[in-house]
Amino acid sequence: MASTSCRNAAKRLGRAHCPYHPDAYLVEDYTAGDLICTECGLVVVDRCIDVAAEWRVFSSEEDLKDPSRVGDAQNLLLNGGDLTTMIGEGTGTASFDEFGNPKYQNRQTMSSSDQSMLDTFEAISTMADRIHLVEIIVDRANRLVKRVYEQKILKGRVNAIASACLFIACREEGVPRSYKDI
Q1: Beta bridge partners of 26
Q2: Which residue from 26, 37, 144, 180 puts its CA 20 to 30 A from 116's CA?
Q3: Do the beta carbons of residue 18 and residue 37 sit within 8 Å?
Q4: 160: CB partners within 8 A, 6+ apart
Q5: Cβ(124)–Cβ(166) below 8 Å
Q6: Number of domains in the chain
Q7: Which domain holds residue 40?
Q8: Would you give the end-to-end CA distance of the chain in angstroms?
Q9: Does 137 fall in a domain?
Q10: Mean pLDDT in residue range 80-101
Q11: Which of 18, 30, 42, 24 is nearest to 10 (CA)?
Q12: What positions does the domain TFIIB-type occupy (predicted)?
């Protein structure tokens, strides 16, 4: 399937035809990004950028992740601290200094409150999966956790805060669970 992005760009610029063969068909060379006249071989437009996705998904399943996107979606409940890059372990001699210490290290870019909030989100997700709760309840519990951490109401164990917020979220959504269930 041919991309028309190069031809459309050429038409907008007014250069969509060969000056020697104005009625000739133009062929797109995808590797070079050129529009070429089929009559004389003249490159009419060069360096066109194809803005289509690089990969195609050949699976018929709709729920698979798009391979043209990288990483998880940003968690809007965090303060932008969940966007991190992890450096893999070094394997060669260039990865270590003369004392054998790794040259490149991952730095803590997430605040401790965001990290504990993320741990609480994970604990809520685990608990909700175990007792088969829907995503709406998990989202409400996560918003409650965010309020708790923003207002600095509670400090303490992650599981206790997660359990309390999940208990309240279940009650607010009309599907109350006992303490024992959670």
Answers
A1: 37
A2: 180
A3: yes
A4: none
A5: yes
A6: 2
A7: 5-45
A8: 53
A9: yes
A10: 66
A11: 18
A12: 13-45
